[in-house]
Design a protein that fits this description.
The chain contains twelve helices and eleven strands. The protein has three domains: 87 residues, no CATH class; 116 residues, no CATH class; 88 residues, no CATH class. The strands form two sheets. It has a six-stranded mixed β-sheet with strand order 1-5-6-4-3-2. A five-stranded antiparallel β-sheet has the order 7-8-9-10-11. Helix 5 packs across helix 6. The chain starts with 6 loop residues before the first helix and ends with a helix.
Length: 340
């Protein structure tokens, strides 16, 4: 992943976001949409970002294609949304930064904020021999990536990989807290993110609403935060495991022994299987041409290399996950992608 900030920048951004955030529990009947994208309740008004708009449509069971289409007709989207809100008995959890609505969620959503994750992870990582690699915050997620210089091996002569971890969190309902084993290819700094080693869901009991719609930080929430902190710290420590690294290294070596004969057709199958844009086929072909002998390992690295061709942090992370999925999938599934 292309880093957009260092660890200090990440910390400062999270502290800033904590200062400007507000959370509200709002009855649907008290919410009104104006100008097709602005939500009002009481004396507050918030311009919703794309994530919040999509979540609003999903909560009201408005098909996304229809929701996007009616935006071209002035006030039609507002009319549809307001009619549905006026007849809805539910209460929603609405998250904001300043005057921007960033999430429209169920009142059972249990926030695990980036500050909690950083506060829990920092003491553990500080005591480990790590190299800080990447940190980013998008509207959807926070990303923190580190590697362990003492855990390295060669997939083939001259092709060294290093073990690391990727820690992610979403404050807006776009995923669970994740600590994922990661394999870094040092020759090109590409990373491959394996599926998570921990899952902490942001769902709890239905929350109580205060008169000002605010979310109170009570003793129960503090206890939950402590339990989460201990669980995350234990997971990080357990994930720094030589056996995990050896397993990933063994899979990479095995994949490197699987030669691809029909490269163009296999590349096309990869883009289709993982629902990637067709325009990426040429980029993958160019990367494989540089790699030399085309193998399953090399095509996985060609995919992760696409991180350097997109500015979207979230898309970069998806490419890193796809790269590891290619290595992790069973031989039968890979044969379904490999062109005969």
């Amino acid at each position: 992943m292309t880093s957009t900030m260092n660890f200090k920048d990440l910390t400062n951004q999270i502290i800033h976001n904590e200062k400007i955030k507000e959370d509200y529990l709002v009855p649907a009947r008290e919410m009104v949409m104006n100008d097709d994208s602005e939500i009002h309740f009481k004396e507050s008004a918030f311009q919703m970002n794309p994530i919040a708009r999509t979540q609003l449509a999903a909560r009201l069971q408005i098909p996304n294609q229809f929701y996007q289409r009616i935006a071209s007709y002035r006030d039609l989207r507002s009319d549809v949304v307001n009619r549905l809100l006026s007849e809805d008995d539910r209460t929603f959890f609405f998250r904001t930064h300043d005057d921007v609505g960033r999430a429209f969620l169920s009142d059972r959503y249990k926030p695990i904020d980036n500050m909690q994750v950083l506060a829990a992870a920092s003491p553990v990582l500080r005591d480990m021999p790590i190299e800080f690699l990447s940190a980013s915050i998008s509207d959807a997620r926070m990303y923190l990536q580190v590697s362990f210089p003492g855990m390295e091996g060669e997939v083939e002569v001259g092709d060294t990989v290093r073990y690391g971890l990727t820690i992610t969190n979403s404050e807006v309902g776009m995923g669970m807290v994740r600590v994922s084993p990661t394999l870094w290819r040092l020759v090109c700094s590409n990373g491959m993110v394996r599926q998570t080693a921990i899952k902490h869901r942001h769902v709890g009991r239905q929350m109580d609403m205060g008169e000002d719609y605010g979310i109170y930080r009570d003793e129960t929430r503090l206890a939950d935060q402590k339990a989460f902190r201990l669980k995350l710290q234990d997971t990080i420590q357990m994930s720094v495991n030589e056996a995990f690294f050896e397993d990933l290294l063994g899979r990479a070596k095995s994949a490197n022994g699987q030669t691809i004969e029909k490269v163009a057709a296999t590349v096309k199958n990869v883009t289709r299987h993982f629902q990637m844009d067709e325009s990426r086929e040429e980029d993958l072909m160019d990367a494989l041409a540089i790699e030399g002998r085309p193998t399953r390992w090399k095509i996985s690295n060609a995919v992760t290399g696409l991180c350097h061709k997109t500015a979207s942090i979230d898309t970069q992370f998806e490419y890193e996950k796809i790269g590891m999925k290619i290595i992790d999938m069973g031989d039968r599934e890979w044969k379904g992608i490999l062109a005969a």
